[in-house]
Amino acid sequence: MSALSEAAAVETLRWRDGRLELIDQRALPSRLEYVSCTSAAEVAEAIRSMVVRGAPAIGCAAAFGVALEAQRHANRSRAEFDAAVELAFKNLAASRPTAVNLFWALERMRAALGPKAEEDPKAAAARSAEAALALFKADLETNRAIGRAGAALVPDGARVLTHCNTGSLATAGHGTALGVIRSARDQGKRISVIASETRPYLQGARLTAWEMIQEKIPVTLITDNTAGHLMRLGKIDLVLVGADRIAANGDVANKIGTYTLAVLAERHRIPFYVAAPLSSIDTSVADGSAIPIEERSAAEVTGYAGVQWAPEGVSVVNPAFDITPADLVSGLFTEKGVVTRPDERKIRALFPA
Ligand code: MRU
Q1: What is the pTM of this model?
Q2: Half-sphere exposure of 135 toward its Cβ, with a 13 Å CA cutoff?
Q3: DSSP state of 205
Q4: How far is ligand 1, taken at its centre, from the CA of residue 88, in Å?
Q5: Is 332 touching ligand 1 by the criterion CB < 6 Å?
């Protein structure tokens, strides 16, 4: 048994002696290694380069990025401190565009730092570290609440198709869609997972399959284009995915390929559920068409790990996310409970004035 498969709980992010340590998700499942960050610029680069990924984990990392930068400049004048922290906000906000948790977390950190310009930077820096830790701990609790709410709709014996990675690696812990699966298993339900490999970055094959094996939850890996065939054969009971941003009308931005699964689920009358915290809901965008979709490099599609299989010069389109219209979503699992057939009225009701 390798050191990796003996690993206990997955600690995707850890705050150690004033540093942020991140599991390097690019190396999984071959190697479990941590990358250490001491500045906001390093955290922004870790987000950009996919060391850390998954909407809630990106938000937590960005919060720690602000705290790191505040700490680095705590002995400077207040004006220098403010300028450095402002630059950190800018860099972190530019790291990835789609997951709204990033911007949500930065707003929280801005509120925590406050407008107290006359205050000693050391006090502001200490407060920002506390705020980042609080945000991290709250994400874990939120995921457990999502898990409890969603597990009620997962029947004993369910064969659950999931896409991308929505587990401990994508959050502060427990996970969103995978958190629901963990919670259902913890309730004594026999759950099996069908993980789609999630081309082109293979979060399903590399990360979800690894997490499920760690947890001893039965998992079967399929290519993305096998999903329809299995549904037609009656081998999938429900689809359960996460979200990177949910619009006010309930449209869901999630990993590319999610929309295809939602259409297939509708065709086969299989429930299609989305598990996400309220921090993934962006009521400032009316519908999915206003959600920015990240376009990633052609190299992710033309090959993998240094092997190129597509011909030189081929044109590539590589959007990292797609939009699933709200009317294909059977239910949204949140920390405030289950929203069946989400629409604008039900989404807005989650945020009382
Ligand atoms: O590009 P990634 O790996 O950051 O994309 C992640 C996803 O699409 C997840 O499904 C989503 O963030 C939900 S994670 C709890």
Answers
A1: 0.96
A2: 32
A3: I
A4: 23
A5: no
Tokens 């065939």 correspond to 229
334 forms beta bridges with 337
Query: pLDDT band for position 9 (50/70/90)?
Result: confident
Round the average pLDDT of the chain to a whole number and report it.
Answer: 96
User: Which amino acid is it at 323?
Assistant: I
Testing ligand 1's pocket by substitution, the residue of 244, 260, 334 carrying the most ligand atoms inside 8 A of its CB is 244
Assign 115 to helix, strand or coil: coil
CA distance 135 to 128: 10
| Tokens matching residue 82 | 């403010």
Q: Is 255 in the pocket of ligand 1 (CB under 6 A)?
A: yes
pLDDT bin (cut points 50, 70, 90) of residue 283 is very high
For residues 345 and 276, the answer to whether their CB atoms sit within 8 Å is no
Q: What is the pLDDT of residues 50-76, one digit of tens each?
A: 999 999 999 999 999 999 999 999 999
Ordered alpha helix ranges (H), the chain? 3-6, 40-48, 55-72, 78-93, 100-113, 121-151, 177-186, 203, 209-215, 227-232, 258-267, 299-302, 344-349
Does the Cβ of 164 fall within 6 Å of ligand 1? yes
Active-site pick, 139, 224, 244, 282: 244
- List, in sequence order, every residue forming a beta bridge with 239; answer none if it has no partner: 161, 272
82 a catalytic residue? no
Rounded-to-integer distance, Cα 261 and Cα 228, Å: 8
- Residue-wise over 73-98: b if at least 16 C-beta within 10 A, else e? bbeeeeeebbebbeebbebbeebbbb
Residue 171's CB is within 10 A of a number of other CB atoms, namely 32
Q: Is the peptide bond before 200 cis (omega within 30 degrees of 0)?
A: yes
- Distance of alpha carbon 140 from alpha carbon 134, whole angstroms: 10
Residue 9: how many CA atoms within 13 Å on its side-chain side? 9
Which pLDDT score, from 0 to 100, does residue 273 have?
A: 99
| 299 Cβ contact list (under 8 Å, min separation 6) | 308
